[in-house]
């Protein structure tokens, strides 16, 4: 807009018109970066100031926080920046997970619970303009179950102490039946993620096992030729010098079969003639080793020679069910050397 002022002057018989213009005005600026301005006027005159601020949820940094309309109708520049407000990092959830990409204004966090746990509280939260989350972190509490039904003629044994009438997720209960009854099916009930323990009931039937069979080179503590009831036990033994390997006691199981039987393992002979061996912490000449026998799993050491260092050393070997392997480094001396120079044998010289 211009106001023209006409001055009429008479100069040399001519009419002269002069025009004076008012300075340009500033239009309302367009601001970006979440900056907003005060006032509602569309135009500002030179010298007028416009206060700047940040939108809700943003924090001002740098400055200045105002701009001024200049004489040429342009607003001064500003380095004001508005950054999103920061919410604190979300708390970890015991027995659950936290998912989020950022923690600034309008960011979202989501919570989940592990299998077997249920959530109390909100499953998500939003970072608010105040720099706080819209809701606190939830809790993941164990899924409750009812107690396992107690069977007739038996009992229920839990793997942890149970208080009250509920059990927590993962708790297992094992059914035990009084002889001669046995559990049919899986004897274990578990509190699962479906809010209840297994509905499997404990049904019973009379279970018997046939008379147990003796093991080779062994004998039984009970030779009765009858049916044995569930959970009845019998012991196995071995004739001397055989050694029992496995559980001495077998039990009649709920499938009508005996538990795994042990076995009788054979002794070993030390297959050397002229040497001194180490057995049970003692050095023994072979002619004095009577009877020539070591039991299953017993260890015997023979002596070998380190020819470079001219010293002897003991090498152990173990009896395994009748087999005792002599180490390859062992060299049996001749009869003459064994008789006339026993002090030169690897077992008698300085040890490495």
From TrEMBL:
GO terms for cellular component: extracellular region. Disulfide bonds join 26-69, 113-140, 209-252. Residues 1-21 form the signal peptide. PROSITE patterns: SUSHI (PS50923). The keyword Secreted applies. CDD domains: CCP. It is found in: Secreted. GO terms for molecular function: heparin binding. The keyword Repeat applies. Pfam families: Sushi, Sushi_2. Binds to various kinds of negatively charged substances such as heparin, phospholipids, and dextran sulfate. May prevent activation of the intrinsic blood coagulation cascade by binding to phospholipids on the surface of damaged cells. This is Beta-2-glycoprotein 1. The gene is APOH.
């Amino acid at each position: 807009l211009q106001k023209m002022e006409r001055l009429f002057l008479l100069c040399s018989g001519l009419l002269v018109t002069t025009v004076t213009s008012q300075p340009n005005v500033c239009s309302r600026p367009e601001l970006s970066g979440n900056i907003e301005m005060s006032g509602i006027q569309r135009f500002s005159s030179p010298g007028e100031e416009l206060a700047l601020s940040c939108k809700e949820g943003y924090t001002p940094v740098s400055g200045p926080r105002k701009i001024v309309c200049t004489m040429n109708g342009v607003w001064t520049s500003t380095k004001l920046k508005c950054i999103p407000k920061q919410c604190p990092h979300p708390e970890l959830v015991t027995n659950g997970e936290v998912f989020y990409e950022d923690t600034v204004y309008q960011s979202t966090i989501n919570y989940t619970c592990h299998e077997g746990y249920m959530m109390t509280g909100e499953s998500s939260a939003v970072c608010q303009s105040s720099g706080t989350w819209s809701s606190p972190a939830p809790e993941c509490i164990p899924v409750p179950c009812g107690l396992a039904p107690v069977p007739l003629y038996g009992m229920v044994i839990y793997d942890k102490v149970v208080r009250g009438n509920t059990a927590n997720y993962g708790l297992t209960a094992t059914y035990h039946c009084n002889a001669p009854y046995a559990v049919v099916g899986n004897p274990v009930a578990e509190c699962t993620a479906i809010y209840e323990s297994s509905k499997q009931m404990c049904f019973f039937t009379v279970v018997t096992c046939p008379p147990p069979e003796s093991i080779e080179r062994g004998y039984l503590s009970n030779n009765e030729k009858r049916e044995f009831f569930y959970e009845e036990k019998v012991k196995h033994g071995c004739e001397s010098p055989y050694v029992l390997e496995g559980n001495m006691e077998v039990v009649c199981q709920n499938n009508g079969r005996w538990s795994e039987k042990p076995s009788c393992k054979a002794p070993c002979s030390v297959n050397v003639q002229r040497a001194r061996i180490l057995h049970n912490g003692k050095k023994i000449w072979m002619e004095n080793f009577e009877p020539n026998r070591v039991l299953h799993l017993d260890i015997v050491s023979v002596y070998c020679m380190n020819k470079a260092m001219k010293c002897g050393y003991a090498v152990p070997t173990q009896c395994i069910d009748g087999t005792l392997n002599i180490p390859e480094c062992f060299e049996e001396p001749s009869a003459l050397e064994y008789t006339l120079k026993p002090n030169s044998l690897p077992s008698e010289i300085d040890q490495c």
